[in-house]
Amino acid sequence: MRRSKSIENMAGKVVLITGASSGIGEHLAYEYAKRGARLALADRREDHLPAVADKARGLGSPDAIVLPADVSILEHCNRLVNETFNHFGQLDHLVNNAGVLQAGSFEDWTQGQFSKLVSIVDINFWGSVYCTHFSLPHLRKSKGRIVVISSCATWFSAPKFGFYNASKAALTCFFETLRAELGSDIGITIVNPGVIESEMTRSSQFLSLVRSNLLPSKSTEGCTKAIVDSACRGDRCLTEPAWFRFGFWLRVFCPELLEKLFQLMATKKNPAGTSIKDD
């Protein structure tokens, strides 16, 4: 769904990206860099951030700074937004990308493992909420945009990813509500990626099975170009790859068929807590 036919020129504008050290976040940095944007790159895994910033500068970003931060911590989010504004003097796009995934059947979780489940919601949902809260005054001033990396899991809720699916559904619902509250001053683009080649999907045994046997994946580079194109058009939402929307219509018109598919997927063994990775 598109709001405007005009394309936003990102040259010289400031983009804050969370979860920027790898995967979708890393390649979003490169895509914005090609368009001349100045970048603030945040991640709790800081080792790779300087290399991402260096490559972004080489691709055309006039300035790229690194901001080690854990978005599940309120004070970290306040700090990274303040440091971005203090360095650049403005904020035009906030890209809420940081996220983690944990696989395992709900029945198999032990009491000691539930802290990992809490961290999924803390990072995937609250991290985006916190960063958005502190960014709103700056985005309102610039008439900027929030880009939310949600997931097709909001309607294509594969088994063994219950807490990931729930965190992304909450994320989408929150930002749809916020869009109504903010009006036209700040744009919101909600992105629903399907199966994308990234560190997260390569590291998950179950997603690797889905990717190789059931659903074709899309390259990270192709996905992130589509995301930035969509944000610069002012789209309200994007599903990438587009054919993944079939899951939504399957859920609406053939829920029993979708349930059977999920039951088949659920028969694949993957012990609780086998993987937790950033986007």
UniProtKB/TrEMBL annotation:
Ranges in a coiled coil: none
Chief location category: membrane
One Gene Ontology cellular component annotation held by this UniProt entry: membrane
Keywords for this protein: NADP, Oxidoreductase, Signal-anchor, Transmembrane
Domain of life assignment: Eukaryota
Membrane topology: Single-pass type II membrane protein
Molecular function per GO: oxidoreductase activity
One protein family per Pfam: adh_short
Xref: SMART domains: PKS_KR
Compartments reported by the entry: Membrane
Ketoreductase domain: residues covered: 13-199
InterPro entries referenced in this protein's UniProt entry, alphabetically: KR_dom, NAD(P)-bd_dom_sf, Sc_DH/Rdtase_CS, SDR_fam
PANTHER family, A to Z: 11-BETA-HYDROXYSTEROID DEHYDROGENASE-LIKE 4A-RELATED, RETINOL DEHYDROGENASE-RELATED
Family statement drawn from the similarity comment of this UniProt entry: Belongs to the short-chain dehydrogenases/reductases (SDR) family.
Name of protein: 11-beta-hydroxysteroid dehydrogenase-like 4A
Organism per entry: Prunus yedoensis var. nudiflora
Lineage: Eukaryota, Viridiplantae, Streptophyta, Embryophyta, Tracheophyta
